[in-house]
Design a protein that fits this description.
The chain has helices at 16-33, 41-44, 50-90, 95-106, 116-127, 133-150, 164-177. With 183 residues, the protein is mainly α.
Length: 183
């Protein structure tokens, strides 16, 4: 049977290391622009006290962290989906690939119906190295937080929140230790 609606890669997805570097560059820019080392400090913050400038700096740093956390999590999501799609196309015979192909068939061979958290992450958790299970649980939770970030943060998030570094380290750890390398 022909595959329905295969995902066509755009080539525009960002690599996690690039998101990390972009976040660091913007953080350094915020820190410099909101310090007295900024040659335009007096004119940029005319009428503001040092406390007000520091408060504004801290708000911008937090927003930078949340924005890049969202970018990072969407990039990780893309990596996981692309990896699953490549396994389906190549018909790999390892345990994870077989499980993903089975899920793909369950959804009538429509790759777009595969669910990130319930299908991809939970399947990886089941078939990967047992020491990674708690990391898969954490990345599962991080995608709940991504959902909150992506939908405007208008309700009080009552579960575990994440910071950029935590999500970056978590994904790097999974990526380096999985027995099912990402394509």
């Amino acid at each position: 049977m022909a595959r329905k609606n295969p995902i066509t890669e755009s080539g525009l997805n960002l690599e996690q290391i690039d998101i990390y570097k972009n976040r660091e560059d913007i953080e350094r820019s915020i820190l410099l622009s909101h310090s007295t080392a900024n040659p335009n400090f007096s004119s940029d913050f005319i009428g503001m006290s040092i406390d007000e400038v520091e408060k504004r700096r801290d708000e911008l740093l937090r927003e930078n962290d949340l924005t890049h956390l969202l970018l990072l999590l969407t990039s990780i999501e893309a990596s996981l989906y692309l990896d699953a799609g490549r396994r389906i196309q190549k018909k790999d015979k390892d345990q994870y690939s077989k499980a993903i192909i089975s899920i793909y068939k369950k959804y009538g061979r429509d790759q777009r119906k595969i669910k990130l958290q319930d299908d991809i992450i939970q399947t990886r958790k089941k078939v990967d190295i047992s020491k990674l299970r708690s990391s898969y649980d954490s990345i599962y939770q991080a995608f709940g937080y991504r959902h909150w970030l992506a939908h405007g943060r208008y309700w009080k998030f009552k579960k575990k929140t994440f910071i950029f570094e935590e999500a970056y380290i978590l994904y790097s750890f999974l990526n380096q230790n999985t027995k099912f390398n990402f394509y």
